[in-house]
Design a protein that fits this description.
The protein is mainly alpha-helical. The chain has three domains: about 20-100, Dna Ligase, domain 1; about 105-185, no CATH class; about 200-334, no CATH class. It contains 13 helices and eight strands. The strands form four sheets. A two-stranded antiparallel ribbon has the order 1-2.
Length: about 325
């Protein structure tokens, strides 16, 4: 073989080695980032559009190879939209496997025990990862969208942390929370104590919501529920401050005046007997269980002790002494 032919072979071999190196480099070194990177595939994105944005965001230096590999593997039309956490120095094979897996980055929102429906909506509307289908809808249209048409929504959602991918609809989130409360309430209702003064699970839910607002101490919840159950059985008014506050709505400014206690609303349990017409907040499991399994006893009154707990009394005279002690302690603390 002549010198020129050897030179040509050498040049061709070098070129092939260079191309092979380029190919291996493209397959192996997709991401040059030293830390995890968040990348979002949007609805309607094509594989070429994704490849271009991966390059623009500094994740992949080889967009054409990524497109080629996607078509070669038959996954070009199977990329799933959502946010992905892309590890550093990931290969094209690993990247494509991730983008078709649907293993998107998760977000969460927590509905807190004692929240009202308006507080739930505020948290949902403010969450940036949710798709806001409920924005600017009227109350009736909103309730219809989440399966509560014609019903009062207060207390109908279970307090919990809900996990979802970016773009999850707010309607689906609220529907999940509503269905979970319905499921939990049904299960707890089946196991309820005999002889309770509730005709329906909704009435139990209403009392549970009052218990939720009256105390934050789990050990006290059955005792608080017991007081209210005995009052209902005797035909006494519940005289629960949280119901008055709920009935005041925006007029509540942090203090309940004597005038407020005397002003009649459907939720004023000082002026009206029995339970209020709906729950007043979202009760947690402990309050639901307390309402359905109240403590036995004879206490009919309770008042704050000043440390977050309460003093329970069986007679009005005992209760008045406990109230006087609480007021004296308040004046001393001032």
């Amino acid at each position: 073989m002549s010198r020129w032919r050897w030179a040509g072979v050498a040049i061709l071999s070098a070129g092939l080695l260079f191309l092979a190196a380029q190919f291996l480099g493209a397959v192996r070194a997709v991401s040059a980032n030293s830390s995890e990177t968040i990348f979002e595939i949007r609805k309607g994105d094509s594989v070429r559009g994704v490849a271009r944005r991966l390059r623009a965001e500094g994740i992949s230096e080889w967009p054409k190879w990524l497109v080629f590999q996607a078509y070669w593997k038959g996954v070009a039309r199977h990329l799933k939209y959502g946010e992905y956490a892309i590890p550093p120095h990931v290969s094209i094979d690993q990247l494509l496997a991730l983008l078709v897996s649907g293993k998107t980055r998760h977000h969460s929102i927590t509905f807190v025990e004692g929240w009202t429906f308006d507080q739930i909506l505020n948290a949902v509307h403010a969450h940036p990862a949710l798709e806001h289908a409920l924005a600017d809808r009227g109350r009736d249209e909103l309730l219809a969208a989440i399966g509560l048409s014609g019903e009062h929504p207060e207390g109908r959602f279970f307090p919990d942390t809900y996990v979802f991918a970016k773009g999850y609809r707010d309607t689906e989130l609220l529907r999940r929370a509503n269905e979970k409360m319905a499921s939990v309430l049904e299960a707890e209702w089946r196991q309820r104590q005999d002889g309770l003064p509730y005709a329906t699970p909704t009435e139990a839910l209403t009392l549970a919501s009052i218990v939720e607002k009256e105390t934050s101490i789990d050990a006290e919840r059955p005792r608080v529920a017991g007081v209210f159950v005995r009052r209902l059985r005797r035909g006494m008014r519940l005289q629960a401050d949280p119901t008055v506050i709920y009935g005041m709505g925006a007029a509540y400014r942090g203090d309940i005046t004597r005038q407020a206690l005397l002003s009649d609303t459907p939720y004023n349990t000082y002026t009206r007997a029995g339970l209020p017409p709906t729950p007043i907040a979202m009760p947690g499991l402990a309050s639901l269980q307390a309402a359905l399994h109240p403590d036995a006893g004879d206490s009919l009154y309770f008042v704050a002790a000043g440390d977050g707990s309460h003093v329970f009394s069986s007679t009005l005279a005992e209760h008045q002494r406990a109230v006087a002690a609480f007021l004296k302690q308040q004046r001393h603390d001032e």
